[in-house]
Amino acid sequence: MCIKIRPFFCGLILGLLSLYTLATPADFSGEDGYRLWLKYDELDNTKLKKAYIKQLSGVYLDASSATGKVIKQELELALPALLGKPLTFNTKADNASLRIQLNQSPSALISGDGFSIQSQGKHLNITANTQVGLLYGTFHFLRLVQTEQSLAKLDITQSPKIQLRMLNHWDDLDRHTERGFAGESIFDWHKLPDYKEQRYYDYARANASIGINGIVPINVNSNALILSPAYLQKVQALADVFRPYGIKVYLSIKFSSPQQLDGLATSDPLDKQVQQWWQNKTAEIYKLIPDFGGFLVKANSEGQPGPGDYGRTHADGANMLAKALKPFGGNVLWRAFVYAHDSEHERSLQAYTEFVPLDGQFEDNVSVQVKNGPIDFQPREPFSPLFGAMPQTSLAMEFQVTQEYLGFSTHLAYLGTMYKEVLDADTHVKGTGSSVAKVIDGSLEGHSLSVMAGVANIGADRNWTGHIFGQANWYVLGRLAWDHELSAEQIAHEWVAMTLTHDVKSSEQIVAMMMASRENIVNYMTPLGLHHLMDTGHHYGPGPWVDNLGRADWNPTYYHRADDFGIGLDRTSKGTNGVSQYAPYWQEIFSDPAKTPDELLLWFHHLPWDYKMRSGQTLWQELVAHYYTGAAAAEQMQQDWLTLKNNIEPNQFNQVRMALAIQVKEAKWWRDACVLYFQSYSKMPLPMGFEKPKHSLEYYQSLKFPYAPGQG
Amino acid sequence: MCIKIRPFFCGLILGLLSLYTLATPADFSGEDGYRLWLKYDELDNTKLKKAYIKQLSGVYLDASSATGKVIKQELELALPALLGKPLTFNTKADNASLRIQLNQSPSALISGDGFSIQSQGKHLNITANTQVGLLYGTFHFLRLVQTEQSLAKLDITQSPKIQLRMLNHWDDLDRHTERGFAGESIFDWHKLPDYKEQRYYDYARANASIGINGIVPINVNSNALILSPAYLQKVQALADVFRPYGIKVYLSIKFSSPQQLDGLATSDPLDKQVQQWWQNKTAEIYKLIPDFGGFLVKANSEGQPGPGDYGRTHADGANMLAKALKPFGGNVLWRAFVYAHDSEHERSLQAYTEFVPLDGQFEDNVSVQVKNGPIDFQPREPFSPLFGAMPQTSLAMEFQVTQEYLGFSTHLAYLGTMYKEVLDADTHVKGTGSSVAKVIDGSLEGHSLSVMAGVANIGADRNWTGHIFGQANWYVLGRLAWDHELSAEQIAHEWVAMTLTHDVKSSEQIVAMMMASRENIVNYMTPLGLHHLMDTGHHYGPGPWVDNLGRADWNPTYYHRADDFGIGLDRTSKGTNGVSQYAPYWQEIFSDPAKTPDELLLWFHHLPWDYKMRSGQTLWQELVAHYYTGAAAAEQMQQDWLTLKNNIEPNQFNQVRMALAIQVKEAKWWRDACVLYFQSYSKMPLPMGFEKPKHSLEYYQSLKFPYAPGQG
Fold first, then answer.
1. Are A181 and A221 in contact (CB under 8 A)?
2. Rounded (10°) angle between helices B198-209 and B131-146
3. In terms of domains, do A351 and A487 share one?
4. B139-170: pLDDT as tens digits
5. Which residues contact B280 (CB under 8 A, 6 or more apart)?
6. How far apart are CA A54 and CA A51, in angstroms?
């Protein structure tokens, strides 16, 4: 074989031949992640299993409704598998140990689709005022079994704290997913309405199990075609699948649809014909989907059409749609994510500037949907100043579940801690205790319409979210929308027990990894309040040097303002005055570097490189230390995971192992690229003890990734 | 709830409420299709299972090589599952009933990666000259068990008839798949090289099980980036996964890569620097991938760069690459799919015109890859006249597995019959018996390099091919590349037994459906030799009226030539003279409508609407009858499938059921649109007894599908 080959390659090939025979084929056993947290593997705790079997000798359930059928099907799927024993259904309630029944008359202890799970002698009763409440109660009951909780003396009563608990998919009609990192959209519009993927049902089950009751299947950068008769039939098919699971479908709409679909001369919301068009279209939708949820609207933002095109306000636009929806019980979710390139205001101020003057003008079936922070889903932002600033308006929370700025689907970032940080933040608008959560759930100002939405991280990847731990972010979004008083740690424990392992020591270790994970990423990407340092377009990897984009406020340099003097964006009254949009309590804190928490320091202040930090170190030293701490934490996480090999199913273990290797590599890339770039301004040496970056700044600046996923 | 609602909608909503409670949730049980034909469910034939258990009491295998490990892993996966009994491995061959061993010295009865399976007393011996031969023998052995064949007195010896058995993926670096209808590409380039999907291994297993030994993971419309160092690392990772399975990676290349990647002034294949560039690049690839397969090239076709840009021939281009690859044992697959808008020749003649004069000029590690027909994967074409016309050149067969023109992934079309029709076609270039198969396998002219490639229908859909029956097309491609003398029916039986059911009556019925399925589609899309009638761009649905595209030869009207006189493209000497490219035997037949087979009549002839067919009917009557027969056959297939409900696993049954509903709908759409359109020329009435089209021609012409999948 080597005769014709040049000697060098001949030796090389022989060398490699001996090497590559050592390659190990994949391990086929183990969990591929498709089942999410609804795994239902037989419990290994024999004692507890015996107790469960005794307590669950028979089930009584009225399965005549579609939701009843879903409950029955879930029990048939779960209990025999968990307990290793066939399931018996009793035709009479008296004989059954587990009884799932609607309340005879509505219970006042429960609101909406809440439920009770109560022990009564030998019986366990799941009750609710609605069929969907029974479904939620059933899933909660199954969670108790999955997480190996005692079923003795139960007295649980829960009602959702937030009314609309939603997933927003930024999915296009061609199945491209904007900011999607787990494969293309799960919604196969071409094959709908006739072909209903099994995946749609499993998606519905997963959502119902965590209380999600609304989904928007298409991108906020919408497409008028979604409202065409052919596509509405497809939407109807999805709604039919989701209905028994208590899930309503909403649609992102294009504000210019009247012109694009039916050739109207205008889409001015004050135009009578336009108003009539929306009324007709809405009626057409409700004919097909009697429980249609409503419209989600991105208007006059990043090039999308909107009422501003006609000199009208967001309220004018939202109210036109709200009036069309009101007769049918639908809602409008009007997004506050707006910023204009010609605005006199710095970007973080613009949503407040545009929306606060409209407070009181929105119809009561409109909720203004606000991203958690004033910029755009950065690893850390302060809470948006809109929360608390529009007391007469229902404000919806928009979290991002997909990790656009948090490492795509290869970085382990548990977002429960981030969501909680925002929800627990105290706006102080009505004194201490005016938390963001209370703004959102309506309790602070007495709104009945309450909404929490997550931008989905779901794609056609077999494990749904690319990274197994991405599943935890879908899970925690639903759980917190149901009850924002749950702790991130408690939810992480639930998820780990259902998804990965019941082993106590392993669980503790995994939960600890999760709890620290988001802060690790903040550290190696954007520590100390830095933000928007990512590369252009795809947002993959570091690009703090980018300064040449079409709009100033798309450039990282707009946000970090690094120069020979120092770094950070001055948002005090001497700067862009972003602080002025917060309650006086926060104005005082955010205006003073000495009072501003370290983690938001450079969000609010431009400080010299030798600024003395609380720790006694200079700003430069501390900045660098954060970058190195973050990258080191990623390495530690990788080490910790490897110790779990024998306690995690091989397929899950390997998926996470491979992702962590990428995360370690990319954490160092972020660290080195940012440190080298900022060093070009600080002109200060790398503090002692830190490993030198592998490459030059020019090298990092030269990297290009034209096919990184999740292009906007 | 209805108080505020207008009475009409109130009634409607109540009506629908009662309806939608009847919606049935999905059945979660059953096979989702991921396992393909490697299902390994426990055999239900108890008697046979007992016999197998007795015959397979222990296995001896040297699993020290990477391929040996793969064999061991497959046996461990398959046998315990099929037999319901743990597997024993013996450390000594003497004790084992199943012995898998390399021949001590190469057997002359076997060539390449062939194998023997032979009974010897109580032993069953699988032997081969190569590790990969043992893997193929093992998969063949498992197929015997899966299809419930006797293991007694086996005496099987097989060697592949074709050397390179390949899948070509038309997948782009952003995971878009040109002509892909089963989700996006399975190759996640972004996460490579670090993240190796379990799917890659299962893909390799499936390919190895049918003898496929080469894959091209990226589109023939290639991207220079694939040869950049960063991407070559990703390719290396794939090659490392595939190697133990006997699969080599090849790359589609962009002919202008020297300019695009490294800024050379030209990509002229006669330029020394360009030649050196390719030599260096090739060496760089082999450093990473010592068993790299070679290059697949689409040049000077549909806008791709090529040697023609510099006035050089295809041979100049191919030979430059061949010389760079030769020292390493690599091959060039140079595609003959070329046609130019400025050619004086009708499109079907152009590949022949360009390539035949180059016969004898290609290096011996070049194979010219020819699509099966002279146009482009139509439901039916005559065999390409290139087969037999280039005796001094290795010719590779390019079949399309993905159903670009055969109903995407919702029409049931078993392509085994089509592949066989082409392979069995007799070119008559060296007298009777000069089959296309003999051209391809090299036996007709004594070529040692032989290639069969299929354009893959594989995507990220859980069942790989969108339609369960699409799996059969992947399967039959591999099986026929291994042995083109197998019958399509025999292969269908194998596949059904492994994939769907062992029930004899059901199998017979399913195989009958499969065997008729492609002709059904020909009938409702392009009967009697019609071709290229599909709509623009996406090729979804009928568009016989399209006449306004950028190039004449992209328009359906270019091919059907319907006018007031008649229909069909005259390719006789009085027309484009396409017949002249065939052997005299065929020239005589194809030149005379009376001798031309009905199924190719309008391919070769433009005939009046009242032309008298063999059947005695007019051409118009027969054309219409074919369309109606095809659509009726689709309905019959749907009915037949529904009778199988209890013999097919629910998930598989439902997937096919939904697809068949779409197929029936679309078959009628094709029928009605084409009949109405051709009627506008024939001016003849619909023959008696045929159901009137549902809509007007204008309606069908108005349909638009901007987001149909598989855009080119």
1. no
2. 80
3. yes
4. 999 999 999 999 999 999 999 999 999 999 99
5. none
6. 5
Distance CA(B107)–CA(B98), nearest Å, equals: 19
User: Is residue A596 one of the residues assigned to a domain?
Assistant: no
pLDDT tens per residue across span B109-128: 999 999 999 999 999 999 99
DSSP A429: B
> CA dist A582 to A131, A149, A358, A456, A589, Å?
42, 43, 17, 29, 10
Residues B171 and B142 both lie in one domain: no
Which residues share a beta bridge with A355? none
In angstroms, rounded to a whole number, what is the distance separating the alpha carbons of residues A653 and A648? 6
| Contacting residues of B for A70, CB less than 8 Å apart | 25
Whether residues B211 and B120 fall in one domain: no
Annotated catalytic, B376?
yes
Q: What domain range includes position B401?
A: 164-499
Choosing from B302, B503, B598, B599, the catalytic residue is B302
Amino acid at A311: G
Burial annotation A421-435 (CB, 10 A radius, 16+ → b, else e)? bbbebbbbbeeeebb
**How is A623-659 classified by DSSP, letter by letter?**
HHHHHHHHHHHHHHHHHHHHTTGGGS-HHHHHHHHHH
Tally C-beta pairs within 8 A across A and B.
Answer: 170
Confidence of residue B19 (pLDDT cuts 50, 70, 90): very low
Boundary-marking domain end, from B115, B134, B158: B158
A117 DSSP β-pair partners = A126, A156
A144 and A256: one domain? no
Residues A242, A422: Cα–Cα separation, whole Å: 30
Cβ–Cβ < 8 Å for B28, A70: no
Same domain, B480 and B611: no
Would residue A113 show up in a list of annotated catalytic residues for this protein?
no
Same-domain pairing of A137 and A60: yes
Quick one: A330 and A454 in the same domain? Answer: yes
To test the contact with chain B by mutation, choose from A191, A196, A282 the residue with the greatest count of B C-beta atoms within 10 A, namely A191
- Count Cβ atoms below 10 Å from residue A696 Cβ, excluding itself: 11
Q: Please judge whether A25 and B77 are an interchain contact, meaning their C-beta atoms are less than 8 angstroms apart.
A: no
* CATH assignment of the domain containing B111: 3.30.379.10
Q: Are residues A327 and A468 in the same domain?
A: yes
Segment (H or E) for B166:
strand B164-168
Q: What one-character DSSP code corresponds to residue B435?
A: B
Omega of the bond prior to A193 within 30 degrees of 0, cis?
yes
Q: What is the DSSP string of B42-79?
A: PPS-HHHHHHHHHHTS-EEE---SHHHHHHHHHHHHHH
Q: Check CB contact under 8 Å for A23 and B651.
A: no
Using the 3D structure, point to which of B158, B193, B225 is the last residue of a domain: B158
Q: Kindly give the parts of chain A with pLDDT less than 70.
A: 1-30
Q: Considering the domain boundaries, does residue A11 fall inside one? A: no
Residues of B in contact with A202 (CB under 8 A): 28
Q: Specify the number of domains making up chain B.
A: 3
Nearest CA-CA distance, residue A279 and chain B, Å:
12
Task: Give the pairing type, strands A98-102 and A59-61.
Answer: parallel
Task: Give the integer Cα–Cα distance in Å for B671 and B401.
Answer: 24
Tokens 């190719």 identify what position? B600
Q: What is the ipTM of this complex?
A: 0.94
- On whether residue B38 sits in a domain, the answer given is no
Query: B302: Cβ–Cβ under 8 A, 6 or more apart, which residues?
Result: B221, B339
Minimal C-alpha gap between A427 and chain B (Å): 37
Residue B518 lies in a domain: no
Q: Is B302 a catalytic residue?
A: yes
Rounded-to-integer distance, Cα A382 and Cα B137, Å: 64
CATH number at residue B696: 3.90.1330.10
Structure confidence by residue, pLDDT tens digits, B391-405:
999 999 999 999 999
